[in-house]
């Protein structure tokens, strides 16, 4: 390819998304225990975003709404098909929590723009949306979780049919399986059009069974407990008995949580190495300089923080995610500290690549924040969990409102000063000096709930 043609050609995108990888599970984000040299290098060569939040969801399988928001650039109440729509049968073959058929995904937009879009790995948002998003793919897993060896894997079907009984169990560890499909794609790609390579790992989601060599890197008795480790959560948050919370004994035992963390870090280090192999393939095929690399996660996870184990809560360990971008058009070694939402990734990619943005997208581009023209993208971020929790944060002050639902939950509010209490251990909701902050955030949460038609407003209103 001639030099001017390479310069004028739109950049490729390699998009990595992990499952359950919280924001502080990377060395570049300040974790001094986990070994992530590849992600650290990408952060040093690109942009590290420090305040990206998910919007939670209305189901315990939070990867579904989180990925739907990311893929469509819309809020958590709009991104997926609802129970009401399934009951009404508004479209054929609707699957609960699948991406709403009226919303284009960002890979689908790039496909329309002439990109070759190639999907690999986990897709938990309905088979129909995968079919319209990707022009090709390999080693596709339609589901939420499973053993990392033996996952039911589909190969790409141009007709978009993926019968469950045609999936074959994988023989390799999922992270390696997905990485090798990505490497094969990069090495064999000869077309002129740019590509989107979407690689969705099932790591570091449980079952956390990393190859032994990676587990040997972390002696569990040397793993420090987080500053907000608790043996029990101090009250019923409305979701104390979900599957994730039963993966360790209760009350929590320090040695057991250390083992969970050792396995978690092992999975992350193994994934980091596989990402390094994919990046190396870009280097070897001379595509690195024409490729935007993105690394993020669907959501985080507790693993002992606040006495919790899963992600079905609205503390930062569960809704605060990593985001790293590196490549053409992006500064090197930059830190973007402004408050942003997961759905802002879609419009940011479109602006970076000069791609038309659908009118359905609610997210805001972060490009001005990346370049330093603006210090923040958003004034506040919001999140939900089922009908029992709601959250609003302005980056410093954070409010979590809990509701009682039937026999579970507690009617109460928490208020945290994240500047002085980043581990969220000191609840200031009853502090008279902070009542103005609490009322302000409550008002902002109510206005947002109205704007997105939060169904809980109607539910709570009818109760009153």
Automatic annotation (TrEMBL):
Pfam families hit by this protein: Sulfatase
User: Which UniProt keywords are listed?
Assistant: Calcium, Hydrolase, Metal-binding, Signal
What positions does the domain Sulfatase N-terminal occupy?
11-354
Establish whether keyword Nucleus is in the entry.
no
Entry superkingdom: Bacteria
Q: Which PROSITE patterns match?
A: SULFATASE_2
Please list the cofactors this protein needs: Ca(2+)
Kindly give the InterPro entries that the UniProt entry links to this protein. Alkaline_phosphatase_core_sf (IPR017850), Sulfatase (IPR050738), Sulfatase_CS (IPR024607), Sulfatase_N (IPR000917)
Kindly give the CDD domains that the UniProt entry links to this protein. Answer: sulfatase_like
Instruction: Name the protein family.
Output: Belongs to the sulfatase family.
Protein name (record): Sulfatase-like hydrolase/transferase
Task: Give the taxonomic lineage as stored in the record.
Answer: Bacteria, Bacillati, Bacillota, Bacilli, Bacillales
């Amino acid at each position: 390819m001639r030099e001017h043609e390479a310069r004028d050609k739109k950049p490729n995108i390699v998009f990595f998304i992990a499952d359950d990888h919280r924001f502080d599970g990377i060395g570049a984000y300040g974790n001094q225990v986990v070994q992530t040299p590849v992600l650290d290098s990408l952060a040093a060569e690109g942009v590290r975003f420090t305040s990206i939040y998910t919007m939670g969801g209305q189901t315990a399988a939070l990867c579904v709404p989180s990925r739907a928001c990311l893929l469509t650039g819309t809020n958590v109440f709009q991104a997926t098909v609802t129970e009401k729509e399934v009951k009404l049968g508004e479209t054929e073959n609707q699957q609960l929590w699948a991406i709403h058929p009226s919303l284009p995904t960002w890979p689908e937009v790039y496909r329309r723009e002439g990109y070759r879009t190639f999907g690999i790995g986990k897709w938990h948002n309905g088979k129909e949306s995968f079919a319209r998003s990707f022009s090709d793919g390999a080693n596709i897993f339609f589901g939420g979780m499973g053993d990392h060896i033996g996952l039911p894997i589909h190969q790409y079907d141009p007709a978009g049919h993926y019968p469950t009984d045609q999936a074959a169990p994988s023989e390799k560890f999922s992270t390696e399986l997905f990485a090798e499909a990505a490497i094969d794609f990069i090495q064999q790609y000869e077309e002129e059009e740019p590509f989107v390579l979407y690689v969705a790992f099932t790591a570091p989601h449980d079952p956390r069974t990393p190859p032994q060599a990676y587990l040997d890197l972390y002696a569990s008795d040397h793993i420090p407990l987080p500053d907000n480790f608790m043996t029990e959560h101090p009250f019923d948050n409305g979701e104390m008995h979900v599957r994730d919370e039963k993966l360790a004994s209760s009350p929590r035992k320090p040695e057991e949580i250390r083992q969970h963390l050792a396995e978690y870090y092992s999975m992350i280090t193994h994934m980091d190495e596989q990402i390094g192999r994919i990046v190396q393939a870009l280097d070897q095929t001379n595509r690195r300089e024409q490729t935007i690399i993105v690394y993020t996660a669907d959501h985080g996870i507790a693993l002992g923080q606040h006495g919790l184990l899963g992600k079905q809560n609205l503390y930062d360990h569960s809704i605060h995610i990593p985001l790293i971008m590196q490549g053409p058009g992006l500064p090197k070694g930059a830190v973007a500290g402004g408050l942003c939402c997961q759905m802002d990734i879609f419009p940011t990619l479109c602006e970076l690549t000069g791609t038309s943005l659908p009118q359905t997208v609610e997210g805001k581009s972060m490009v001005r924040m990346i370049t330093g023209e603006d210090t923040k993208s958003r004034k506040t971020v919001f999140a939900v969990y089922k009908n029992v929790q709601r959250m609003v944060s302005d980056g410093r002050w954070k409010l979590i409102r809990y509701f009682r639902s039937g026999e579970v939950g507690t009617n109460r509010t928490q208020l945290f000063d994240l500047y002085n209490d980043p581990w969220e251990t000191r609840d200031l909701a009853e502090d008279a000096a902070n009542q103005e902050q609490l009322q302000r955030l409550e008002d902002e949460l109510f206005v947002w709930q109205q704007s997105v038609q939060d169904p809980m407003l109607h539910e709570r209103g009818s109760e009153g």
